[in-house]
């Protein structure tokens, strides 16, 4: 196995330290609204599967949030299936893989959606606020915004990684789960 399993009790801490901005945003919105629309559930759900959240933990995690909004019964009826489906336990039993940056960047979030890549889909103001919450300082922020203006979203994300970890990152980000596992390696080394 490439990295350790993540359990529910660690998830808030690792979200803060090691989720890329796209997943931090979905995670925070889910905690805040106790709900995510389909695109967000897919993007975050498959990412969490990729970080090693087991099916039972995933069901408990989503249920704890959605129950506060739609009730436990409706969660079991309408939402649990698609989580099991993501883990290949329903339907064609395909083991779905987490989305790459390319797929996320080319998605088209609508009103009320929180999926997508913030470097591409956030307004400049919201992106600056989110980066500053992540701990990117103002000098580094300008370098990130410069990449965004040139539509180099993955390079912008790579610069964010470097800024937060205080270390160069030559590989470049091309997958949210790569961001996560390399961040965890960094903190554990
Ligand atoms: Fe997420 Fe990739 Fe965008 Fe970074 S570049 S925020 S990992 S989609």
UniProtKB/TrEMBL annotation:
Residues of the DNA primase large subunit C-terminal domain: 12-180
Binding site for [4Fe-4S] cluster: 22, 101, 117, 157
Family to which the UniProt record says this protein belongs: Belongs to the eukaryotic-type primase large subunit family.
Role noted for this protein: DNA primase is the polymerase that synthesizes small RNA primers for the Okazaki fragments made during discontinuous DNA replication.
Protein name: DNA primase large subunit
